[in-house]
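Throughout our pipeline, every protein is held as a single compact record rather than as scattered files. Nothing more is needed to write down the fold, since each code stands for a local backbone conformation. For reference, a complete record is included directly beneath this paragraph.
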Amino acid sequence: MTTHDVHGGGRPRLITSLGGQAPPGARPQQFDLIPGVTVIGSGDDAHVRLPGLAPRHAEIRRDAEDEYVLVDLGSPQGSRVDGRRLSGPDEQPLHTGDRIELGDWTMSFVREEFADHGRPFGGRAGGELAEHPYQRRPRPRGTSAEGGKEPEGDDPGEYY
């Protein structure tokens, strides 16, 4: 799987879901993923701390192709992605909208268009390397389709 955003853009994050037993006034929480590895668990060293999970329940890793992958670290509560159970050191690539279950917690993986979807059909099927007739790759930062100058050397170009 390949994408085109070498900078890891698209604000990848987890958004918790609130079920029927959520307390009144409760709101979904958002957790931005950090570059590299985001640790999820109940421990003090976890980047996303959720009570009731193992101290180091799972990790979300950004790989060299700009894909985010959920890795279960062998927690007793287990992990699921879109209903598929992960166990032991098992992993699953994530796509926008994936439902993630960690113990009693349910959340969704979200990432803005083109950062996760630089290919047709949201990156889920076919066309991995082909150009899509309706989607275009984003222009480099600092450039504009309407004008401006292209980047040169250390100069990022200009938007108009």
Observations:
- The mean pLDDT is 75.
